[in-house]
Amino acid sequence: MENRDPLPQEEHPFVSKIWMAAGIVTLIIVALMLSWKANQVFLYTLAGAIIAIYFHGFAGLIARKTKVSQKWSLILSIVLSVSFLFGAFFLIGARVTGEAVQFSKEVPGLVEDAKNFIETNSTMKFIYEKVSSSKLVEKASPILSGLFNTTMGVFGDIYIVLFIGIFFTAAPNEYKAGIVRLLPADARAKGRDLIAEISKNLRAWLKGMLFSMLVVFALTSIGLAILGIDLWLVLALIAGLLSFIPNFGPIISIVPAALVALSQSPITALWVILLYCFVQLVESNFITPLVQQELIKTPPALIIISQVFVGIWLGAWGVILATPILVIVMVLVEELYIKKQDQKQLLSNP
Predict the structure, then answer these.
(1) 347 neighbors 340 (Cβ within 8 angstroms)
(2) Engineered SS bond to 187: which of 183, 195, 301, 324, CB 3.0-4.6 Å?
(3) What span, in angstroms and rounded, lies between the C-alpha atoms of 237 and 182?
(4) How many Å apart are CA 325 and CA 47, to the nearest integer?
(5) Which residue has the higher pLDDT, 14 or 206?
(6) pTM greater than 0.90 (yes/no)
């Protein structure tokens, strides 16, 4: 009789599932490790995409109002935006620069005045001791320093983000098509729809955010000017820019304004704090609901949770970009999970 090799035994389905699960877990771990090391690349890409979305959104507005072609409207959006920035710099830049230099020189004295005021006021001294004992400053220092001590430096970050934004603006379809090609053939149509939906929601979010920042700047500058606060223009600019960061930005913007006002008098500092609280009240209860009529609904608690989670993962710049990241995640969950579950429920209950 001929000796025949035994037939290979088929692998048990349970063993196959174990190997498959192990492979998936390994891929997830590798992806998380890569994302942890390359988090700045992700942030640069997202920030560049937001800039490109702004240019294309502005170009769409120009095209609707003037009936010019898409190419020329895009060129006009870039030229008008850059011209506005340069014009604003030449008109108020010298004053803002002078106020910023003066403010930086006065910071040590303002801090010393604040310490003296705290020492002479029993209530403020009690609050200061409680905050110091909780070590909030030590916990916040690494996050704040991370905002300025990135790999490339602040100006390097701005340079990279601007160039990424320009490239995305010039040829967005090429980058979208490249992402879609990475997907399986039967998933490419869905991928194109997802990219379009994410772009639409980010465009709506950005439009609402810019309007909110403008309102905060206008209200703050008017209030500080009426109160006769020194450096009111630069303080209003700080408040407007920091309102880009929900929840935490307005709190941070109070600190320099209160220090400047405290150098004039404690009563003035109290009025400034009340002004900032009023502006935040108007922004939260009137501006934000108005803006949310056009952008994706984002529950406030979910925004705070995402800021904490993304801040731990990506640092200070993650806190700044936590809201657009949340918008992207909400769109993906809605399109890839919730709608499929709703369809299954409809099919199971005809």
Answers:
(1) no
(2) 183
(3) 42
(4) 10
(5) 206
(6) no
